[in-house]
Predict the structure of LysR family transcriptional regulator.
Amino acid sequence: MNKFDWNDLQAFLAVVRAGRLTVAARRIGIDHSTLSRRIAGLEESLGVALFDRRSAGYALTVEGERLIPEAEAMESLAVRIHARQDDPAQGLTGSIRIGTPEAWGTYFLAPQLSLLAQRHPELEVELIANPRMFSLSKREADIAVSMTRPEQGRLYARRLNDYELGIYAARDYLRRKPAINEKSQLEAHPWVGYVEDLMWSRELDYLSEISPALRPRMRISNIISQMAAVVGGAGLGVLPCFMARREKKLVRLLPQVKLHRSYWLITHADARDILRVNVVADFIAERVAAEGVSFWLDDENALATDETGGAMMSKRKRG
């Protein structure tokens, strides 16, 4: 039996999370033939087959499923040991991956990255701004921003901010249509909304909150593309105010109809001793507070932060 090698276990977890050998190899920075040898070496050292090799990818065997908890426990231990080597005097080094919703990552965080780079020039930052949930336990990200507070897992969550959404339409669209002065008139118009089975959070179900009768005629998987469709005259849409107010071709309709949602900053318990994770998480919270509530809400509805400069809460009833 071959000697057990921790690198082989890392290779195993990479394939588990990617599902395909080439994708996993690219993520951990080795060629796919080396990764294949590591998986074969691990299977030989354990005396079991961990994957069924299929044309569509690598499928876990029963023995592979059983190995995952132990492999992840060893990975967590390795992360904690490595974190103790961080030296604050040397500045932040290494890489950090931040997973965020596409609107928050694009319109808020991306413009802040130059300041982060100025403060920590040796830090490598990966921003993944996608419409999805990120699994911190599977190392899909070091820090995640979500619209939903996690209810399980070894995760720490703090509220970053509340934000407002409203109903928008393009000026050109409105010139071709009768004026919209009442909520009852909304049902007569086409709507742009989410692909229902691709809603990655229940918080994205905006239209039913306005009226159970509203059904999108055009369904799009992410909010940035939805805004582009609304700008192009496809119909009405519910958009975050911090996005839509930048687009001069859009008009907000019925400002009394407003929705509120929140963003949460999430880190894993295993990252509590990792300097770069703590520093970047604090940087994100600092920049959210620095923008002020007027960034996230309509100016006329902006509310003061609490005395600690922390969470910004709407005094209005949700919904």
Remarks:
- The chain has three domains: 6-83, 89-160+262-291, 162-261.
- The chain is about 35% helix and 20% strand.
- The two ends are 62 Å apart (CA to CA).
- The CA atoms of residues 170 and 249 lie 6 Å apart.
